[in-house]
Amino acid sequence: AAPSGDRRLAVQREIEWLRMPPRVRTANARARMQDRAGAGAGSAVVEAENLIKGSGARALIGGLSFELPPGAIAGVLGPGRCGKTTLLGLIAGEVAPDAGTIRLGADIRAALLEAPDGGPCPDPAPRLAELQQTGVNLVLLDEPERGLDIDGMRALEEALLAFPGALVVATADRRLLHRTATHILAFEGDSRVEWFPGAYAAYEADRRRRLGRAAEQPHRIRFKKLTRG
């Protein structure tokens, strides 16, 4: 079967990203994120402590703690149906945890942008500008790259970096993560979500250090059994 339009666009973007020399990819990401450096001073935008959330008998999130600083762009990554959308719902307050706590900081106004019924996400670049005008200072985006061509991706990237508040972006697009993310929330399997306070390239280096050869081996994600107190 021929690949879908979304799949073709994703492959095209991936090829463009891979053709860039690694040092250029890293330098571009560092330069574009410099304006956000130092924006992390102040109270946390989101605080989670020992957060647990399940689906049926499976624990999607098995004890996650993190503090999202002001101005951060947190990239959420992991395979399909691992719990990324659930995590966004927890942060937005639309999903209740099974255990643990998650709360927004004082004066934080959050908005969740997600694709309707599996379709393309409404063009996120102008939506971010609109939300900024309404006083929203935390935006959660679920696969905002879906359906965008290369020009649309560039506009999305610029909009993410220009947004003055904090962002949490669930995406499968490595190029977008590499060029924008200042922090990482990674679903690594066994119900573990790794919080990494650094850019995507640094997270990948840390993952290889922690997991060794296993980091390079494709594997089906597994979940622990959910235990409710």
How far apart are the first and last residues' alpha carbons, in Å? 47 Å
Mean pLDDT: 85
Proportion of helical residues: 25-40%
Strand tally: 10
Low-confidence stretches: none
Cα gyration radius (Å): 17 Å
Count of alpha and pi helical runs: 7
The topology string of helices and strands comes to HHEEEHEEHEHEHEEHE
The fourth-level CATH homologous superfamily is P-loop containing nucleotide triphosphate hydrolases
Whole-number tally of structural domains: 1
- Strand percentage lies at 25-35%
CATH topological fold name: Rossmann fold
- The 3D shape can be described as globular
What does this structure look like?
- There is one protein chain.
- This protein has 229 residues and is of the alpha/beta class.
- The chain has a single domain, classed as Rossmann fold (3-Layer(aba) Sandwich).
- It has helices at 5-19, 22-33, 84-92, 124-133, 150-162, 174-180, 200-211; strands spanning 46-55, 58-68, 73-77, 99-104, 110-113, 138-142, 166-170, 183-189, 192-196, 224-225.
- The strands form 2 sheets. The chain has a 6-stranded mixed β-sheet, sandwiched between helices. It has a 4-stranded antiparallel β-sheet with strand order 4-1-2-10, covered by helices on one side.
- Helix 4 runs parallel beside helix 5 (150-162).
- The longest helix has 15 residues, at 5-19.
